Amino acid sequence: MESIEVVVVGGGVVGLACAAAAARRGREVCVLERHPRPGMDTSTHNSGVIHAGLYYPPGSLKARLCVDGAWRLYAFCRTHAVPHGRCGKLIVALDDHEVPQLETLKARGDENGVEGLAIVDRDFIRRREPRVAGIAAIYSPNTGHVEPEALVRALARDAEAAGAYFLPGSRVINADPRANGIVLHTEAEVIRADSVVNAAGLYADDISAMMGATPYRIYPCRGEYAELVPSRCPWVNALVYPLPHASGHGLGVHLTKTTWGSVILGPTVNHRTEKEDYEHDRLPLDAFLEPTRKLLPDVTIADLQPGSVGMRANANGPDVPFADFIVGRDPRNPRVIQAGGINSPGLTACLAIGEMVGGMV
């Protein structure tokens, strides 16, 4: 049986950031990842948006870590040559009834410390996005986009440069909490850790239960995407969002210009019972038409093509509008540091989460 100071379970963007932060503090760290490569689940199946921090309740971990994480992520991308851009975002009101919601959302962003937010008029919208509908909008100049796959590779290199070990194909199948640590069993080996960082994404609740830590539940929520066909990608210049769903689940089908020039539409919100139910009952392409036409009136079904699909690791079920990140030392088993329930804005916040966890270990 091998022994190590810190085991990070999960090699997505959050797990990699936690591993790097702990290793830079002089800890001996290894990352256990069930897939052959890092970041093959939620980390690379998302919109790739660097959020500014408007949407989340003031004082929540999501608000604090998103605002902090965005600045950290921009700096990291510049340093490590990760394709990204501070392209700005419009959150549009489609009629007069939605304008008060814009004002409320901007006030929340201001309270969260988001810089540069402004309410803009139709002329401003048309100058930035000539084909987009809307009578007013919030303009968020510090929202941006990043190439998720390149970010994962850079985070993995950064963690390894700090001294962390990455063990691919190492699914945790059992755990044995003991007085002197936690013994983790994979299909290939047994490792005793002084501390375990639970960054297991969709399976964070299962890992928490194995380690005798506080029980909680992850609710898988599928997000599906369509795309504009290549000839229509010039219709969108940056990021365009509707007002968020009143339910609190998702930010609505939005338009994201990627770092490589495509335009993705989505994601949808589809709560599932299985954590890897990526394909059953997929939406037909025409389900994206009306939500997209609200923002981009000229679009037709011929302008759309199928896109990707991802799975959110929500800590709230379909009947609960909001759940915060679960980040902190576990009260039931203090050798466990939780980094669970990391849905949006988890990509943006990953480095801030990493620093928070790194300080705890």
**Spatial separation of the terminal alpha carbons:** 22 Å
Question: Runs with pLDDT <50, length 5+?
Answer: none
**What characteristic shape results from the CA principal axes?**
elongated
The number of distinct β-strands equals 20
**Tally the helices: what do you get?**
8
Structural class: alpha+beta
Largest sheet, in brief, is: 9 strands, mixed
How many separate structural domains?
Answer: 2
Query: Mind telling me the CATH superfamily name of the largest domain?
Result: FAD/NAD(P)-binding domain
What's the CATH class of the largest domain, please? Answer: Alpha Beta
> Hey, roughly how much beta strand do the residues contain?
25-35%
CATH topology of the largest domain: FAD/NAD(P)-binding domain
Mean pLDDT: 97
Radius of gyration computed on alpha carbons: 20 Å
Order of helices and strands: EHEEHEEHEHEEHEEEEHEEEEEHEEEH
Helical fraction equals 25-40%
Give me the CATH architecture of the largest domain, please: 3-Layer(bba) Sandwich
